[in-house]
Design goal:
Elements lengths: L1 H18 L5 E3 L2 E3 L11 H15 L3 H16 L27 H17 L6 H15 L22 H4 L7 H10 L4 H8 L6 E3 L20 H11 L9 E3 L11 H7 L6 H8 L4 H9 L1 H15 L25
Antiparallel strand pairs: 1-2, 3-4
Helix pairs in contact: 1-2, 2-4, 2-5, 3-4, 3-5, 4-5, 8-13, 10-12, 12-13
């Protein structure tokens, strides 16, 4: 186990060294840079990689959960770690919005662990938003996903309102038109949207998110779903209303590997959620599903670029944010 962990850390750090760049990226109120902590916390990438590697080895669901946590943070209100803040008697925080209630505990835990380790080495220096961005990239590569550059220098949000995520994050039954609209509002193309949907090649979904389309609701099963697949999901989810935490893998073929099987599944009617299967049914997105199903390298290339772009969305720099001492509360205790 020790050799496995050491090898994983070395692999992540080696890729970082080979692909690192010092190109500055403009952001709101300042600049981000891969070498942002070169003087103030030079080992931050190594510390984060070591922490997340140990967590992933002991809890293999961590990587997929963290990827989802990162998307929910960035896509709703920008990459500012606002989703990590806990509610108080005076404020219902973003993490307690209805759409965020199913975010997995392993993901929150790994960020707490990584932030704690970084704080011991470099107190009050590295933001939770940067820790989350680094952790997500490193965990993705552990699942076999593509490496991409993470520019650093984000600041953490000063608040965490709960009224945004339910309006801004895509729902499991969203139409392609709804998805295109949501992504376009944030400057993402249809191609980037379909590439980012490939994150569903790992992780799981709770039965309530797709129960209707497999015949567990008031309507007939979705004809686009493979009948045997739908029957298997009905058996797996029977009684889900009494057991709301029951869930199944997004990708039933290779659930723990980041690959292009998600897109192949859509062609076979094996998309778990309505918003997944809709990508193959709609003529605006079907050609991209076909492309990624046939060419994993094209998917990885587009996914990496889209993730790098997502990691820069709505970031806070300079005086627009802070470096939290704890990721679950702002320093001023205003929330």
């Amino acid at each position: 186990m020790g050799r496995m962990r050491a090898a994983a850390i070395m692999a992540i750090m080696a890729i970082t060294a080979i692909t690192g760049t010092t190109t500055a990226v403009p952001a709101t109120g300042g600049e981000l840079d891969v070498d942002y902590y070169a003087k103030t916390c030079p080992r931050v990438a190594e510390i984060v990689a070591e922490t997340v590697t140990g967590k992933q080895i002991s809890s293999p669901t961590t990587a997929a959960g963290t990827l989802r946590l990162f998307f929910h943070d960035c896509f709703a209100n920008g990459c500012d770690a606002s989703v990590l803040v806990s509610s108080t008697p005076f404020n219902r925080a973003e993490r307690d919005a209805d759409i965020n209630l199913s975010l997995p505990g392993d993901a929150f835990d790994v960020i707490v662990r990584a932030k704690t380790a970084v704080e011991l080495a470099c107190p009050a220096t590295v933001s939770c938003a940067d820790v989350l961005a680094l952790a997500t990239r490193d965990l993705l590569t552990m699942l076999g996903g593509p490496f991409y550059t993470v520019h650093l220098g984000r600041k953490d949000s000063l608040d965490s309102p709960s009224d945004g995520p339910d309006r801004l994050l895509p729902r499991s039954n969203a139409s392609v038109s709804d998805l295109i609209h949501l992504f376009s509002l944030r400057g993402f193309s249809v191609r980037e949207m379909v590439a980012l949907a490939g994150a569903h090649t790992v992780g799981f979904a709770h039965c309530r998110e797709f129960a209707d389309r497999v015949g567990l609701g008031a309507v007939a099963p979705d004809p686009a779903a493979d009948p045997r697949f739908a029957a298997g999901l009905r058996r797996a989810c029977m009684g889900f209303r009494r057991r709301p935490t029951v869930a199944v893998f997004n990708d039933v073929m290779t659930p723990n590997k980041f690959d292009n099987v998600y897109y192949r599944n859509l062609k076979r009617g094996l998309g778990l959620m309505a918003s997944d299967q809709a990508l193959y049914l709609d003529p605006r997105t079907r050609p991209l599903v076909e492309l990624y199903a046939a060419d994993e390298a094209a998917f990885f290339s587009d996914f990496a670029r889209a993730m790098e772009k997502l990691s820069l969305f709505g970031v806070k720099t300079g005086g627009s944010g802070e470096v939290r001492r704890r990721c679950d509360q702002v320093n001023s205790f205003r929330v």
